[in-house]
Design brief:
The chain is α/β, with parallel strands linked by helices. It contains 13 helices and nine strands. The structure holds SN-glycerol-3-phosphate and calcium ion (CA). The site of SN-glycerol-3-phosphate has 9 residues, from β2.
């Protein structure tokens, strides 16, 4: 089940006053609560259709909409801190060019955490989010803990950050995110970097991991030794592909799962559900949540 009844009820009671984004309709919430089956819904970069991606505001909107699982992207600063941001440079989602005009090409890895903390990561999306910051991973998981949410953590471009897997696990461990409760139910680590996923599995074999992309059947069989999920773009999959992945057992002895991305409309959500996927990663969790119950 992808939506927490308690959160949905709270959101319904509190109404739009607690939201920084349009609230789902009361009808949608009722359908979500009544829909215990269907694919799990992940709020991609938080509920990023309604708040600036990969920020605490996007986490909070996902929470207010009633969604537990959020996806994010993790990269590393010049001084070795982990920050939550999608692009490997700061241009698109912050005002780095304005604050640091002489620092082209504004790569994340060329800035310290203190420098990145000065940036506005909200105004590009909507001026009402002015002053929103790029969160560190510590801040990010702290907010998830406060909201009792769960994390699909993507190690982004691991080839740029040698050893980022160990750094990520260290931060997660220090934040209390590697205890049995989190490892069993609240945390999945994924990457397009197959070696990165393999490294995470070697260092923490108990963690659930996912490989992003649409590997061939032969590669999937090899990946099953160190991963539990194959997470492809929705544009690349068929029901046969999903069934072929499901036919293999993953690193923890269960059938490999398929979580597909990024599906933002009702028709796409119904199609993905009908292909048999286990999860849908979406910028619009409210739309997808309603569609997979209804369609
Ligand atoms: O979680 C899947 C998705 O996030 C992968 O693509 O580019 O949005 O990180 P991207
Ligand atoms: Ca991502």
């Amino acid at each position: 089940m992808y939506l927490r009844p308690a959160a949905a009820a709270a959101a319904a009671l509190l109404g739009a006053t607690v939201l920084v984004a349009p609230a789902p309709s009361a009808q949608a919430r009722a359908q979500d609560v009544a829909c215990p089956s269907g694919p799990l819904v992940f709020a991609h970069r938080g509920a990023s259709a309604y708040a600036p991606e990969n920020t605490l505001a996007a986490v909070d909107v996902a929470d207010h909409l009633g969604f537990e699982w959020v996806e994010n992207d993790v990269q590393r600063t010049r001084d070795g801190r982990l920050v939550v941001i999608h692009d490997d440079n700061l241009r698109r989602t912050t005002n780095a060019e304005e604050v640091f005009p002489g620092r082209a090409p504004w790569n994340v890895r060329d800035f310290t955490a203190a420098e990145i903390a000065r940036l506005d990561a909200g105004s590009w999306f909507d001026r009402k989010f002015a002053g929103t910051r790029v969160p560190t991973l510590e801040e990010y998981v702290g907010r998830l803990s406060r909201n009792q949410q769960k994390l699909l953590l993507e190690i982004k471009k691991p080839e740029l950050y040698p050893g980022i897997e160990r750094d990520t696990l260290r931060v997660l461990g220090q934040a209390g995110w590697l205890d049995a409760a989190h490892v069993n139910e609240r945390l999945v680590v994924q990457s397009f970097g197959v070696d990165s996923v393999r490294a995470v599995h070697r260092q923490r074999p108990d963690l659930t991991t996912g490989v992003l992309g649409t590997p061939s059947a032969g590669d999937v069989a090899a990946y099953a030794e160190f991963t539990d999920r194959i997470n492809p773009s929705h544009t690349t999959i068929t029901s046969d592909y999903v069934a072929a992945v499901h036919a293999l057992k993953g690193a923890h002895g269960k059938p490999l799962e398929v979580n597909t991305w990024t599906v933002d409309d009702a028709a796409g959500a119904v199609r993905a559900r009908n292909l048999g996927v286990d999860g849908i990663i979406t910028n619009t969790p409210d739309v997808v949540g309603e569609a997979v119950c209804e369609g």
